[in-house]
Design a protein that fits this description.
The protein has helices spanning 37-40, 84-94, 125-138, 181-188, 193-197, 214-226, 230-251, 272-290, 303-316; strands at 2-8, 12-19, 22-29, 47-51, 62-63, 99-101, 105-106, 121-123, 142-147, 151-157, 160-165, 260-265, 295-298, 321-322, 325-326. It is α/β, with parallel strands linked by helices and 330 residues long. It has two domains: 2-105 and 302-326, Nucleotidyltransferase, domain 5 (2-Layer Sandwich), CATH 3.30.420; 114-298, ATPase, nucleotide binding domain (Nucleotidyltransferase, domain 5, 2-Layer Sandwich). Strands 3-2-1-4-6-5 form a six-stranded mixed β-sheet. Strands 11-10-9-12-13 form a five-stranded mixed β-sheet, with helices on both faces. The protein has a two-stranded antiparallel ribbon with strand order 7-8. Helix 3 packs across helix 9 (303-316) and helix 7 (230-251) packs parallel to helix 8 (272-290). The radius of gyration is 19 Å and the shape is globular.
Amino acid sequence: MHLMGIEHGSRALRATVLKDGQTHHVTIPRTEDPDLSPILDLGKPDITVVTYSMGDSLTEIVPLEKAEDMGLLPTRAAGKEIGTGTMLVQKLKELDWPVYLVPGVHRATPWIKQPFRRYSHICAPDKVCGAFMGTKKAGEDFILVDASTNTVSVVVEGSKITGGLDALALAPGLIQGPLDLECLRAVGSGSDVEKVFSSSGLMFDSPTDMDEDPSVAVERFLQGIGSGDFQALDLLDDLCDLCTMEICALAAAADKPLEAVILAGIFAELDQRTRDHAFTRVHDRLEIVRGKAPRLILGDVHFSSDGALEMAKQICAGADTIMNFKVIRR
């Protein structure tokens, strides 16, 4: 059996591959001229599950050849467009790989709770795969917080995503964040909206037309953490507190108390001592609000691609639905 799950992330393409009974990981940085050979040279899998971009025209898990415009609504993207994911998906289509695209969660997703329909978009497909991986670690009911370039959190109840807060809604990430009053004024004054969005995160004092590569900016943050830079450590504390706010907001929308929270994204890239500090900060603040903090679980760097591989296994085994999404066969 040869299966593959691919995450189209904001900083890299990450693949989890099952071949000849062995599982391994591949990472390809997002660049304008990417080397896709580490994935393509592995050969044609039996099934590949891909999280591509926003997935906002999909409500089912569908074969690539049946997805109009590769599963995207015909609108301008949000965030910095590099093209790595598009090149990969187009190449897989040319090679006739058996590819399935995962939908995002959005207003048209039938089972999301009514309050979340006030938002056009809840999360991209990579968070759906991360949530599916979460069901293997945290059970049927939990909150997933993925904080890195941006921060996106979802609430999972009964092994399906019932709501969430996308990058524009509450907690900023390191690079991207909500379009608050200052951001709207910058756009109204003529600044490019995508560049403003991509400089409204915690690493920027004010929104600008700055066009820094997300991978470079996040690496700069991690280097600051590693060297004990006080500004970087303060940003991490801010991120922890804002993530806690997002957790509390989503917990209020759940039908029963949730006993687990998965912290993914940048948390997996911290050294152990700094990660322990971050987990303790989130735990203590949740304890203040709830009286008893939920169990905190780390989602590693390949959490979403691992989840995509798990979906590929389910499709291979004949599953009709995954995370409540219907699987459309080739």
